[in-house]
Write a structure and sequence with these properties.
Elements lengths: L2 H13 L4 E7 L22 H9 L1 E3 L3 E2 L3 H10 L25 H7 L3 E7 L18 E5 L32 E4 L8 H4 L4 H15 L6 E6 L19 H4 L8 H26 L6 E7 L8 H7 L13 E2 L3 E4 L8 E3 L3 E6 L2 E6 L1
Parallel strand pairs: 1-7, 1-8, 2-11, 4-5, 4-7
Antiparallel strand pairs: 2-10, 3-9, 5-6, 8-10, 12-13
Helix pairs in contact: 6-8, 8-9
Amino acid sequence: MDKLVLLVSLFLYAVQGAKHILVIVADDLGRNDLGIRNAHASGPRTITPVIDSLIGQGVTLSNYYTFKICSPSRASTLTGRYPWGAGFYDMDSDNNHQTANFTLYPALLKQAGYATHALGKWDVGFMVKNATATARGFDTFFGYYLACNADYWYHTVANGGGECLGGKFNSSIQDWADNVGNNIQPGDRKALNGTYNRNLLSARASSLIAAHDSATPLYMYLAFQNVHEGCARPDKLGMQAPLDTVNLYNTTVLDTYKIMGAMLTELDLGVGEVVQALKAAGMYDDTLIWMVSDNGGPLERASHCKFYAPAISSAYSLPHLTPLAPLSLTTPRQNTTGAKFFNHRLHKRSPSGWKAYVL
């Protein structure tokens, strides 16, 4: 049995009357980053009440495994295939991004009458138009193509833009698209600049939900950059969050931990805005919310270690997989409060060795 069969089975189990599907992907979220997982004597170390509540109401896949890095994991989530089965072995080059060769979930759901929207991080192909989101089944795409923006407020390219820019760092080139169908166009620089990445995504997601006819089923893929750091060189900006949110952690000793906590809280605020939009539109009770981390958190970020310990999960911790990255499903119509799955590992041979998943 492959991952596609298990994911479809999981959807069928979880939906049971839910008309709409919201997939939320957090970037580099670690097992113990959320407040519900890192509480100590004086309370949670991080402020994430909305996500904590969704987890409490939903089903948690507590033995979930995923790929070690972004692109292969996201290709797997979008196609239902093992990463190497979708042509992904690493993220050295966009030449490895073979999403155009496979059918994605939104394309299948469109056949069933769904409206489909992708927001945030794509990172599974952009060198040719046929690999981009609106060519793979999404009606709209509002977000960025590469692994991350360098700057959360100005949305500039990371790592020089890769092959398109010859690998040379250029802080003036913006990686943000606002595509509708075959109309591929850059985001409005004047409208985007100065607005924190998370705010852009949650605001657009909320506006799409508000404008949506609830009689039509909705599939929304919402991939936040939080809590991934800005990743451009040579002037790497690192972790970034609004000062007001950082100040919520005024009792946290180290600045690094304060900013990391603030990035988690910003993620939670974004999820909260979208949940409120679903409720305002009368869609919340008919929505399956599936939230997942792409690959756990990299251990070289010292801030993560404080929130992870002692249960550490890490991008790069093992050759090909990340153990215990968070995954939770909430279906408001069902009585799933506190439920957990402890499902078996799947093993499959690939050219680079054994991989394992728990679904």
